[in-house]
Amino acid sequence: MQWLVAESVWWGGRLRTGVALRVAPNGLVKPVPAELAPGGEDTRRFAGTLLPGLVDAHVHSALVDLGTVRAGGIAEVWDLGGVPARVAELAEQAREAGSALPRVRYAGPFLIAPGGYPSDRAWAPAGSWREIVTVADAGAAVAEASAAGATLIKVTAHAGGPQLELPVLSAVVAAAHASELPVVVHAEGPGTVAAACSAGADVLAHTPWTERIDDSLLQACAQRMRWISTLDIHGWGRPDDPDREVAVDNLRRFIGAGGTVRYGTDLGNGPLPAGINVREIRLLQSAGLTPDGVLTAMTESGSSTVSWLPGGLDPDPERFADALATARVLDADSRLHSS
């Protein structure tokens, strides 16, 4: 058993004082009253604020340096499409004691229609997609991904090329849910968000940006799925990007309808910072998230990783993003992992 004590702790959606973190032998972290922490060497003390490990829920490991991502403050990533054996190898390396990599949760290959996105993209390596033709094939593809260690299933619905028919997409979702695996859909273009929602998908890999989502569909999405933000891929900080404006408007209305957002950047897609993305955080704020809301979007409720803000959490909306960008990841033995 280990104990972490800091000046403040952000956990469970709010900033607290008088709280310590108890790290169980299995790695599970739980906030408890600070007076329970013993005074010996099993207790590590820090200035500033401790919080659950920060998560980027949309990364492509083959296109980035994960060590740099962790040094930049990200404790965990979701790999949403890659060569299964390679991503599994990275995930195994990340679990090793003293690893300099973030924890990796992964979806395995993109599940696609024959000839569909992203098999026609130069950035997608051979083996990073798996074509599906029939309903029976859908079940087999999910079983293969699960056997390879995937805890997510990624499907593409791209209006610019071949797409899975709705019965096949629905069969993927049904097979995944039977194995208790959430389904993430890359939905791009007219009709794709509606198809993902109708099929029962759990997560959209991107906030929709190609069109304004009508209110009835947006309400349906808010009731049954989460959206991963990925707002900064539109313009990478350039002003007045029209796709970004559409995406922020859709996300603002989604949040207003009660929808749940996950912070994710699509890291590997263009000139995005390898670590905490201040621009993404500010765009989430512009879409209506408070600082507590942003942290909720960036963390897991049952975290086994811990992040540290040496200067403390600054809840002022104007200063929040820059302050959060100073976060660093604590190693399993509670020592600071620095770049």
TrEMBL record:
Q: Which domain of life is it from?
A: Bacteria
Chain coiled-coil ranges: none
Q: Which InterPro entries does the record cross-reference, listed alphabetically?
A: Metal_Hydrolase (IPR032466), Metallo-dep_Hydrolase (IPR051781)
Task: List the Gene3D superfamilies hit by this protein, alphabetically.
Answer: Metal-dependent hydrolases
Q: Which PANTHER family match?
A: ALPHA-D-RIBOSE 1-METHYLPHOSPHONATE 5-TRIPHOSPHATE DIPHOSPHATASE (PTHR43135)
Name this polypeptide is given: Imidazolonepropionase
Which species is the source of this protein? Answer: Actinoplanes philippinensis
